[in-house]
Hints:
By secondary structure, the protein is mostly helical. The protein has helices spanning 2-7, 20-54, 58-86, 88-106, 112-140, 146-154, 156-170, 172-175, 177-183, 190-197, 202-208, 229-251, 254-259, 273-299, 301-319, 325-341, 344-353, 356-373, 377-394, 396-407. The chain has a single domain, classed as Growth Hormone, Chain: A (Up-down Bundle). The longest helix has 35 residues, at 20-54.
Amino acid sequence: MTDIALSAPVSVPWYREITAKQWYSLLAGQLGWALDAFDVMLYVFCLTTIMKEWQLAPGTAGFMVSVTLFASSFGGILFGAVADRIGRKKALMLTVLLFSICSGLSGLAQNLAQLAIARTILGLGMGGEWASGALLVSEAWPARHRGKAVGMMQAGWAVGYIFAAVAAALILPFFGWRVMFFLGILPALFTLWIRSKVDESQVWLSARGAKGTDKPAVGGFFQIFRGGLLRYTLYCTLISTFVMFAYWGLFSWLPGFLATPVAKGGAGLSLVKAPLWLIPTMIGAFFGYVTFGFIADRFGRRPTFAVYLLASALLVYIYGNVRDPTLLMVMGPFIGFFGSGYFSAFGAFVSELFPTRARGSAVGFTYNTGRMLSALAPAIIGFFSVKYGLGGALTITAVAFVAGGLTIFVLPETKGAELT
Length: 420
């Protein structure tokens, strides 16, 4: 009995199986995405202030968000292919520099055209950062823990959102929106850490050739539209479109909904309270991102994705019709948990469907083409808010949540798949 007991395998916590270099890769992707969120959400929190200063209609202000999203789709597609060519690490550094510099340029804008140009270029970096970061993390971590890793990386968005909300509460009412954008320059310093601490993906190096020398085994962009990959490309793009429309239609206007008077279909909170009310929402989003990875590694990508989206549809419908501040704060974490957490599926799920030679192109194209097709969501919500109020307009996103949750089942389950 003693010998049998001594010979039994010792259970090691999953996190002890991860090397220091794998943790560095995760931290690079997570912080990059957090800083991306911080830069992007600065505009969302400044939205109502810019509308008043420049006398913009809601549809026009929402269109500015759409411009950034539309540009980010091109950035994701571009840098997904770039990451297949020059490596995941270099692509990540380039994108962080791009969106940081353009955030500062946004603060210098003197009119709508100048702001649109700055936000357009910022969008290129925004889309490219997620694609390169998700590739770096997906390829660095072992298959059995990939969902957890991508979930923790995706949680960086909630962290960046929270810091943007805190900045909006502490800085916006007193120093104005331009100073808010100047803060967005700081993430550029993060590239120095990436350069010194993070290794290039060994999966990418192996596919390209020994030590990345003269054997260009990485395929071209258009291979994702050929043979058996075409089906995966089309379905992943369709699902991405549904969930991107739902997310950006909801979260681009959530601060505006909270700050808009009740008479205009909003929640009637003050300019200071509205960002603070979103902090519990983003705390819920953080746990939604992380929890999704653990659940998906246990029960599968498809059922976890579907449950999150269907729950989001129900919660958004209720939330859009609530006006009690206490109830809005109580519901906030649940909106964040389910309404954001499902994004953790994309990095792992899409990576597992495609081979290494096409993975960067596939991740960049499917995720960001969906973003491109959904870029009008903020403008559409702004347009319908004139007639139905922001709360009523937000419920439009519930339909998109349901569509995404049902469509996921046309794709195969990939839990535990090894990357090839």
